[in-house]
């Protein structure tokens, strides 16, 4: 199957080789593609190998109708072109605007969605025991780092676990600036869901969006499980 990487871009020459196969009325050999593009067969062969690796092209061997060697031919993979531009930001804005239209229920729905995904995204240890507050906070911080939040734990009394986490980067910054009433509760839900899944003796109780010009601040608190 073709690569799922939406950012993949084909060079002009590789795109021309692929287009030559797509425009053909049947499988084509290296020499035929080279002749149609007026390039050296070795150049075409190089790009065909790369297109096969990327999942854009399939290679087969045709049995000869009479005497002679079998012929290796190529055909473009049938399916939507995955090399085009993506507009995921627009999709996110469309979905957020629809959720915002729900009024007072939008924030609660965002928190619930975040909780569900936080449970799914957090990495758990194989052991069944409950983590300490420090271990749970470290795992929460690792999840936030993987998501691109650049978390910085802070606070805590003495050797105790941190009671705050600074988020120095927002992977959804433009969306948060436009729909903060939904995106920020979603972030809080992510943290709450992760800690709940870990059965942690600590919970995320509040998120201050842009507590400083360059950071948001998540507040943690011990729970009854401690």
UniProtKB/TrEMBL annotation:
It comes from the Bacteria. Residues 8-88 form the HTH arsR-type domain. It holds the Pfam family HTH_20. Transmembrane segments: none annotated. SMART domains: HTH_ARSR. This is Helix-turn-helix transcriptional regulator.
């Amino acid at each position: 199957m073709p690569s799922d990487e939406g950012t993949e871009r084909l060079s002009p020459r590789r795109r021309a080789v692929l287009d030559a196969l797509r425009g053909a009325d049947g499988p084509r050999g290296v020499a035929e593609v080279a002749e149609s593009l007026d390039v050296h067969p070795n150049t075409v062969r190089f790009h065909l190998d790369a297109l096969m690796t990327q999942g854009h092209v399939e290679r087969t061997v045709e049995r000869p109708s009479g005497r002679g060697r079998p012929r290796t031919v190529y055909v473009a993979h049938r399916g939507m072109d995955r090399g085009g531009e993506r507009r995921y930001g627009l999709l996110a804005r469309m979905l957020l605007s629809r959720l915002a239209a729900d009024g007072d229920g939008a924030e609660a729905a965002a928190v619930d969605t975040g909780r569900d995904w936080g449970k799914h995204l957090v990495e758990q240890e194989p052991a069944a025991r409950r983590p300490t507050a420090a271990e749970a906070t470290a795992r929460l911080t690792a999840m936030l780092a993987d998501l691109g939040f650049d978390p910085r734990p802070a606070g805590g009394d003495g050797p105790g676990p941190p009671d705050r986490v600074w988020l120095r980067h927002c992977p959804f910054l433009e969306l948060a600036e436009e729909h903060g009433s939904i995106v920020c509760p979603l972030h809080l839900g992510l943290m709450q869901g992760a800690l709940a899944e870990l059965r942690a003796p600590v919970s995320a109780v509040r998120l201050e969006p842009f507590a400083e010009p360059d950071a948001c601040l998540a507040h943690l608190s011990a729970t009854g499980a401690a």
